[in-house]
Recover the amino acids of this structure.
């Protein structure tokens, strides 16, 4: 009986602390449904407004081969946080292209955290507090200890893979 009670209490505690993935809300500022908080890649690629641009842009993006060769030499066990808006034009363009770069690098999906924000660039439960998100998308690269190595904000200065390479080279 004690074991059953313990298991029940653990299950309740886990469900209370678990955050809903791919949560949809109606954003009053944008007057549309948006994703908010932690998302999965599948969640964003199946969200109708985001999917309409994601599929063709992902398919069309061709990362620069020479840059990718250099980048592959530097990628280890870093983590990347993507903060974006399903309503945001720059996010709709750059997130699919960024995933194309990550896929070409064979970057582990478990090392990528995806967070959607509303039109005010906010998420719930303080999950982006302290990240200083001014514009989206923001791609933040962390070393394996959690120290920020660099970020790409809104759009790349050169290309996504070029800016990513510059972040990794700065680390080395």
């Amino acid at each position: 009986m004690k074991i059953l009670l313990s298991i029940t209490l653990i299950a309740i505690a886990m469900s209370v602390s678990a955050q809903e993935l791919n949560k949809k809300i109606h954003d009053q500022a944008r007057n549309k449904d948006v994703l908010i908080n932690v998302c999965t890649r599948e969640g964003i690629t199946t969200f109708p407004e985001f999917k309409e641009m994601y599929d063709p842009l992902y398919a069309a993006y061709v990362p620069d081969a020479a840059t990718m060769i250099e980048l592959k030499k530097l990628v280890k066990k870093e983590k990347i946080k993507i903060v974006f808006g399903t309503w945001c034009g720059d996010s709709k363009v750059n997130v699919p292209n960024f995933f194309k770069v990550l896929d070409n690098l064979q970057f582990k999906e478990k090392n990528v955290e995806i967070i959607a924000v509303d039109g005010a660039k906010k998420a719930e439960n303080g999950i982006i507090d302290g990240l200083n998100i001014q514009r989206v998308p923001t791609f933040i690269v962390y070393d394996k200890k959690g120290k920020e190595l660099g970020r790409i904000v809104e759009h790349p200065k050169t290309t996504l893979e070029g800016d990513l390479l510059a972040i990794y080279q700065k680390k080395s």
